[in-house]
Design goal:
Two copies of one chain form a homodimer. The first copy, chain A, has ten helices and six strands. The N and C termini of chain A lie far apart (about 45 Å).
DNA sequence: CGTTGCCCATGACAAGTGTCATGGGCAATT
DNA sequence: AATTGCCCATGACACTTGTCATGGGCAACG
């Protein structure tokens, strides 16, 4: 079925060492796939990928210092021949668009069956695209991010409970302006509060 | 090194199918460990454990319908000889106490090296206790949950952005009482807002 | 060039929020 | 029997928050 070729050279990036190691074990069971490098943060992937001549990079989105989206963008810029397969815990519609904007070839959520992972790697390596079907539909429905940049900034500050005065100081704005941005964001998300709005934006992957 | 015994019979419970499968692959690499059952939710574990005569149950805390803590309590009640090893993404100090209160014999966070997992299973099976050392120290320092039950209820409602009036209606209380509980919780957590308080409580595993 | 959209800002008003003092009911502890 | 701690409640006060009307500056698009 397969030509007798060298195994696909894969890099794994996930901040949780346990699942990173487990995914490596899972993929190494496949004879045509070989995990040649692992990273615990996005800032390491570009260098590791170059060093080990990686063909497919499997990146988690949530990582502490540099997230998977940023890492993907840098990686694609330096090694356009290296494919990226994004893996994430949360099925936020906004993430899908962001992933492909960053140059990813595939997108999986972590509750897809484990048997599908190896196939996804093969498809991506062969030049194909892999998208979680349920998420794809959801993403097309939802439309794209309606929030302006300022509204996003203000919301993400409000998320952690900062009062308006503090946000205004941090952004070098007047308190009135901050409240206007917040009010706009609340309206666009259909929420009643800043905090409901922040949650809604977070769930959509807008923030 | 090991006596020639039957392999340890392990059950895996995690809501994310991908990491569940990956952990299974990792553990099945060990000759003396055998994953005999998997569950995607806590409500399934007790029945599965009984059916497959499981010796060690590896439970994630975060699961949709019934969480790992509840599942552990039920499991320990019905099969006292079955050990529980808790695995979680977040290192909230409060979780550790809750896990042992539920009858767990071990507690691991998901960013421990994957090589340590098999050893933890063996130790727990042998009747020992396994605790993430960094978390243990953190837990002893933090002390235990200072929030009363009502304060926790009120906080968890406030977390999602509900206004006081709505919380009061949901709990059949007067708005003044809700604000008192909130004010107390804010004081105890050293926060400035209800939302900061909710975050703090959440990070401590108090909520 | 005019329009449109986003940014920034101000001021004012209604509603929601955090704090405090005060007090009654109840269960567990001393 | 008295104390302590949690629950519940009320009312009042200062402060924060959400909304609205209004207006200027600026860049992009027709």
């Amino acid at each position: 079925m397969e030509l007798k070729e060298d195994p696909i050279r894969v890099l794994l990036a996930d901040d949780q060492a346990l699942v990173r190691g487990a995914l490596a074990a899972l993929l190494n069971l496949e004879p045509d796939i070989c995990v040649v490098a692992q990273a615990g943060d996005g800032s390491e992937v570009a260098a590791l990928a170059a060093e080990h001549r990686v063909q497919v990079a499997l990146l988690d989105i949530q990582m502490p210092i540099m997230d998977g989206l940023e890492a993907a963008a840098i990686l694609r810029q330096r090694m356009p021949e290296c494919k990226v397969l994004m893996v994430t815990t949360f099925d936020r519609p906004g993430y899908l668009r962001a992933a492909f904007d960053a140059g990813a070839s595939g997108f999986l959520v972590k509750d897809t069956p484990s048997a599908a992972l190896a196939d996804a790697v093969r498809q991506v390596h062969a030049g194909g695209r892999v998208v979680d079907p349920s998420l794809a539909a959801q993403s097309l429905m939802g439309g794209s991010n309606p929030l302006t940049e300022r509204e996003r900034e203000v919301l993400s500050q409000a998320q952690s409970g900062a009062p308006v005065a503090q946000i205004a100081a941090a952004m070098h704005l007047s308190v009135g302006t901050v409240r206007n941005h917040l009010s706009n964001a609340i309206g666009k998300t259909g929420a009643a509060n800043r905090i409901e709005a922040a949650h809604a934006a977070h769930e959509q992957g807008w923030i």
